[in-house]
What we know:
Elements (H helix, E strand, L loop, with lengths): L2 E5 L17 H7 L4 H9 L2 H5 L1 H21 L6 E4 L3 H8 L5 H18 L4 E7 L3 H8 L5 E8 L2 E7 H13 L4 E3 L12 H11 L10 E2 L12 H8 L6 H10 L4 E5 L4 H9 L4 E5 L2 H11 L2
Parallel strand pairs: 1-2, 1-8, 2-7, 8-9
Antiparallel strand pairs: 3-5, 3-6, 4-5
Helix pairs in contact: 1-4, 2-4, 4-5, 4-6, 6-9, 9-10
Amino acid sequence: MKIAFLFAGQGAQYVGMGKELADSSAFKEVFEYLPSNLQKICFEGPAEDLNNTLNAQPCLVAVSLGIAKVLKSHGIDCEYAAGLSLGEYTALAYSDALSVKDVLELVRKRSEIMSNAVPKNTGMAAIFSCEAKVIEDVIKDIKNVEIANYNSPKQIVITGSMEGIDEAILKLKDLGYKSKKLNVSGAFHSSYLNNASEELFTVLKEVDFKEPNKKIVFNTVGKTSDEDVKILLKNQIKSSVKFMQSVEFMIKNGVDTFIEIGPGKVLSGLVKQINPDVNIYSVENLESIGKVVELLNE
Length: 298
């Protein structure tokens, strides 16, 4: 059995996530680094405060990393690690490339940079059951629209100006494809964030990255990479997230078991669409941790 851990991205957060693990020493080791005001928002809300990018990103990383440490304390570990956008930082922290303190500080700064970067009247939309090639052909003639996420064969996310997104949605509807605008504050993973990526790079250059002890599969390339991690993370916020390609790469390299770590089951659903034949689990609370530990330790 070859295991990969997948870490959730922003949008997966909910009030109370991780709360029932609060007494676990493995969870505490991570969570104590989160400022007390954020711990309170994470466990008690209100949801409006938790959903604010500035709070959501550090809370989500702390909870997901804490859950992974609890799983590890029960003898479940991975060979490969990957994350969806923000989750990539959790994967790096889990593989000891970043300290807990550094990763939480880094994602706080990243969230500030991203919040300030996106202009008004920009956004994102998910397109369903449509091949990437069709979407690429449709948007190539539309100004300020790009592909943000290659999530699965059944889900591609576009990003850009709302005007451009509306035009793309209309053209795709005429071709028979459904879409849904996403509840986000702007056009993430687009060239609108070119300046922000340079600002983030200035921050990244000050951070001490170690060699990861897991094989990290990076969003921007959809595979492992020897390139400087700081450049990969700099490019990540302005480039397409190749989640589907990342999962396919891991399967090609022998991964047969994926464990989604953190709130929600979004990534598990995407993996099922990419390859229904692999083992897929998601862990976010005591019950799901117990089930996975029992199944994998048999």
